[in-house]
Each structure stands twice: as structure tokens, then as C-alpha cells.
Amino acid sequence: xxxxxxxxxxxxxxxxxxxxxxxxxxxxxxxxxxxxxxxxxxxxxxxxxxxxxxxxxxxxxxxxxxxxxxxxxxxxxxxxxxxxxxxxxxxxxxxxxxxxxxxxxxxxxxxxxxxxx
Length: 117
What we know:
By secondary structure, the protein is mainly α. The protein has one domain. The chain has four helices and two strands.
């Protein structure tokens, strides 16, 4: 079994990899005209890959929900939960993040415009 330090280093390596993927994703979407659409796509991308969930129901360690959902939905023979254990937190984090962005972005935009005047 892995130690807590191994899990921390695993999350660090995973985070660096996702940030590298984010830079490639940014290169793909940078030419979109709408700034709002770009921001929402980045928020959903980060929620998809950084949402944690317990790796096993009886284990306190966290793993990326995307991979837990993929593993349980495709590889396990027990199909009663399928993709749901990882998909539900991803959808919740995505929804909450986009709603918070929709509430905060206009306020920050007005403050920046007022500061530039």
C-alpha cells in the first residue's frame, strides 16, 4: 500500500500533467471570439480533471473523479453504479463553478472598467 507521501507526490505529478494539458487546451480555444465562452470552457476543463473523489469506498485517499468514473464504468464487472460515482461530483463542481463565475465576472469587469477610467 502507498503512503500518504506517495499520494501527495502522485497528486503533484498529476496536477503538473493537467496544467500542461490546460496549456494545450488554451492553444486550441484561444482564437474563440467570446471571452466568456473561453472562460467557461476552461472552468469545465479544470472541474473535469481536478474534481476529487475517494478512490475506493473504504479508502480515505482521493483520486481524480474522471479516472475513477472511467475505471468503474468501463472496467468493473459490477455495473450497478457505473459512471455515477465520479460523474455526479464532476457535474456538481462544474455547475457550481460556472454559476459562481457568472455571478462574479460582471462585478470584476465593472470594477476593472471603473479603474481604467
